[in-house]
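Make up an example, fold above all:
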Amino acid sequence: MGEHMEPQEQATRQHQNRRIGSEEQKIRRIQAPIAGLSCQACAQTAKNLLQDVPGVEAARVSFGARSLSLDLLPEATIEAINKALARGGYEIPAGALSEDDADSATAFAQKMEDNERSRVARGAWIAGASALLTIGLSWYHIHGAWMLISAGAGVFVGGQRILSDGLRAARLRAPDMNTLVGIGALASFGAAVIEVLSPNLLGGAGHHAHAGPMILAFVLLGRVLESRARARTGNALAMMMKLAPTVAHVTQEDEVKDIDLKELKPGMHILVRPGERVPVDGVVLIGTSALDESLLTGEPLPQERGPGERVHAGAINGTGALTVITEGVGAESALGRITRAMREAQASRADSQRLADRASAFFVPAVLLISLVTLVGWLLGGAPLGDSLGRAISVVVIACPCALGLATPMAVVAASGRGARAGVLVRQASALERLCAAEVIVLDKTGTLTLGEPELGSLVPVDPKANEKGLLARAASVEQNSEQPLAQAFVRAAREQGLPILPSDQFVAEPGLGVSALVTGRRVWIGSPKATIQRGHKAAWVNELCEPLRAIGSTPVMMEEDGTLVATIGLTDRPRKEAPEVLAALEDQGLQVQIASGDDPAAVGALLKALDLERIPFEGSASPERKANLLIELGAEGRGTIMVGDGINDAPALAAASVGVAMGGGADVALESADLALMSSDLSGLLRALRLSRLTRRTIIQNLGWAFIYNLLGLPIAAGLLTVFGGPDLPPPFAAAAMAMSSICVVLNSLRLGRANLDD
């Protein structure tokens, strides 16, 4: 029981105990690419269809990322999901559905997008060639059946997908851009038929036949260009997926074998050679090397890693060879969680998207009504039927609900990619808008204002005759199971003194109170002075024991064995050197800064004094509930709030804030509760997140403004307003070209976020 453990055994025990107490969830989440989306309205239609499927708890569909995310109850079946999607012409391609193989799903999505782009390009080529041929026939005065055959090929062959999608949307009572374009193309072809059968009826000849295929050619060409631009906004996700190698070097009985990453199991020993990427999350067993983690955390400088320290999949190894014990593989690695969070962010909805969705719901019916009014109005005004019909068609095809629908999602896709490259992981799209609108920011102390690498300063036994080393060994044996930064101080101190890390059992973590476990048959408990008093110890006595530690700025921690107080422990933690500058910058941006820490008030005050931040209000000995209530109280005053923390204790407060920000390296519970995560340990990542938020909000406003202004100006011009003042008409093909360009402009404007400088 008291034997000293080798580093390999210690790392193995850490791995085995890290997730004690987790429970399986009844709701499972799946993500997959979705085929058949041609506009933002399609994404909304697909979502509505999915929400009607029994067992689908929540559905998120992203047109920008061409993906869906579903929360499913046990009764949900993939067959029912695909059957519902088929009603709208959508599908999850066979082999693309994955709960844990993110690499395959992402690769499948890219392949599907490439195939879709090729298909649309073929349609654009057919429609364009048809339009040019029809114009050529008109020049040579070849009318009649030949002209209709030429125009019909462009409309019914080149535009087949648009026509079928538009009809399907109309049947579902959710008309979209395909419906409008299809109506415009069919109306133009119908006018061409009338021109052939009764040339004098429309008041002109030869100017409608080419309009149908040309409308479709411009629309399809616009989709090709939009798809290419949109693919660039999603490059960050594709780049992340390529970071992890597909093969790992597994060491087994002094032999190294190359094994596919999918076959790796937790606990396997992996050899990482110099210059290679780390394939898994794990703990270093043997070797020391500097790792480049810049694409994971945004840290520009290589980070030294040695025995007992954690490494992450995707990092590039330096000049030293490492042997790593596997902890997380694929979707369970930090890289897998990052890519999953990016996909979820791209599928989530920003607050401004609701405005666009409300407008889009009435958009198509309103456009059809305006088109009808245009036709009737010009006819009543004495205009020829051909001119009146042309203007009505122009109204239909110039209207662009896609620009409106793309305004927010494309900005979110671009921003999430840019954030990932800067070490800012966006988990909720709405957080990007709320972050820059917040007025109050509350920060935790340990791991946020400090490095989160506490050191054991002193251990004072209550009984002077007690064995200090024995107490420390038992304390470290309990704390080895905890994810709290303070816990690692005990483990490091025990190792430095060559003390054994003993087996422990029945580990219990009580957030804000303490941790306990059975060690050598004793129930060992470690917690704060406040929790110690709550456990029945006299307050005066506890405070008397802690006072010497508080006087020197240490954080006091109490230790019990079988209900008896046995030691007072002093912990210290170095402050982050960038903290004063970052907090001053936050204040300069108009944010009210507060500190809420579970640490002792004296320790918090000493830290702020050392950082020359005594002006900042703080609250010490704050329980998780108190932190959460503080955020709720601030929010009740109508002020947006930001909570920044990294521990299990911070999870309720992160969830209660308008925006929760988890620091890099934080506990999994904290990361799951947060809206944003800073993957770097540098607090200045918070300033980059705020700048990204402001740029994203500005881009969304620009996109929405452009979409609204375009339609407000475009519809009257298409209806012939300029002709009233002696100006020109806008032919339907030109109206279609303008419509295609409006969507491209939104995508290109969003693309600028990918090159944004976040360090200004």
